[in-house]
Design a protein that fits this description.
Elements lengths: L1 E5 L7 H4 L2 H35 L9 H5 L16 E6 L2 H8 L5 E5 L8 H15 L4 E3 L5 E3 L8 E5 L6 E7 L2 E4 H19 L5 E4 L5 H18 L7 E6 L2 H4 L2 H8 L3 E6 L1 H11 L20 H17 L2 E7 L8 H21 L3 E4 L5 H12 L17 H4 L11 H19 L5 E3 L2 E3 L1 H17 L11 H15 L5 H12 L9 H8 L13 E4 L5
Parallel strand pairs: 2-3, 2-13, 3-6, 9-10, 10-11, 11-12, 12-13
Antiparallel strand pairs: 1-7, 1-16, 4-5, 7-8, 14-15
Amino acid sequence: MVDVRVEGPAVEREEEILTPEALEFVADLQTRFGAHRDALLAARAGRRAEIAAARRIGFREDSAPVRAADWRVPPPPPGLVDRRVEITGPTEPKMAINALNCGANVWLADLEDANTPHWRNVVGGQVVLHDAVRRTLSFTAPDGREYRLREDGELPTIVPRPRGWHLPERHLLVDGARAVGALVDAGLFLFHNAAEQLARGSGPYFYLPKMEGSPEARLWALVFDRAEQVLGLPAGSIRATMLIETIPAAFQMDEMLYELGPHAAGLNAGRWDYLFSIIKVFRDAGPDFVLPDRGAVTMTAPMMRAYTEKLVAVCHRRGAMAIGGMAAAIPSRRDAGADERALAKVREDKTREAGDGFDGSWVAHPDLVATCREIFDDVLGDRPNQLDRRREDVRVTPEQLLDVASVPGARTMAGLRANVEVALRYLAAWLGGNGAVGIHGLMEDAATAEISRSQVWQWVHAGVALDTGETATRELVRRVVAEEVAGIGDLDRLEDACRLFEQVALAAEFPDFLTLPAYELIVEGPRPPQPSQARVGPLDGAAQ
């Protein structure tokens, strides 16, 4: 008998999500796989130390037979055959409705980087997903405007992204310990929606973030196998696309698809988290691993081209979908010039991706769907994807993936200021409960703050000389923080954001994820449980 306790504040309609049966299912996953996850997180630190000492990563020798063998993942399931346009966004009612009505093929319902894990967002997001799957989602704005799902035509396939393995859930305790956030997110979604999705001709699909190698993909496969068994789902009906957004994962693309096995659907290329990972892993590896201004690191840089070309080649050799990165631009309906510049940038990025063989790509705003679709339509024609396009010409070496030194660009005071300002604005919004934030015409999420603060940390510890002749030091960064705060002016949670930024950007030791200390700032204390709700108690029949 397992004890499950919900210690978060009350959330509207929580009784529909936090049922005894749903909590029992999540507790079963936590009991079976929580310790496995803990061991994998501990292994990350050891692996990072090995890589840092060697100042390189190589392809694993022990898995060479997997890379050499001729195997393929299962064909794309219903709803994931054509993925040419995918829109991302948080599970907030208005944004969810706009995403589902915009004409995209897939909605990445983000429970991760575009969502802050306030308990109201964790549970409220599951309410939105429950209603979206059943096409009953609606929302009335404070000004009285009503938002509803369109009744004509197909809606995008709903693909949630749960939290990464590293994040806990403070408000759901299993035998007194915090549950794994990823298991809470995926478990609640599967319990309430998997059978419904299958009945509607689609299926339970996920995006899986922040993994660092094939053992972590294998753990997801075990979780999905267990879920299918407990919920009575067809074997292999749960499918997932993995984000290759860490540098260790870039060296194990084949292996990760192989270990996810019948659940594998594809891979995705994520820019900011990938650069953040390069800094994190090689943060003290010397000047050859110090990046220029983050705005100067484009997807055309040699190391980024190697990364994306390898991803497409691996995916298509294995029959998996290759999905391109984010178009984060927010088109302007008031400034024609800004709108034209944003669309030109999106067109350039998506033209490159479609030409390289990607099967689809991400946008962050409904107004970008038509542009992305037009570009992929031109390349795909009547085909739903490019799985038949094998990139046999691609031969990527470890040296190419790690060629940070060849990235063009300078290290500038303007770049430092941009990192500080954007990070402060985003963190203030994140602490207030908003994980998808429009800043200077771009839709930013937690990956933006991670690359910003990690670059500041690396520049300070490397003693980088800026274009002004000044050296990046803690004192200089603190001065810039004060100046940027004065320029930002009145902003909720800005003071907390400043303290958090200094904690994760100027610490002596590099914090692995800023969202971990940030999470501790937002958790709300427990309130007395209410007997009328399914909040506390031992669950008969839960995993032993």
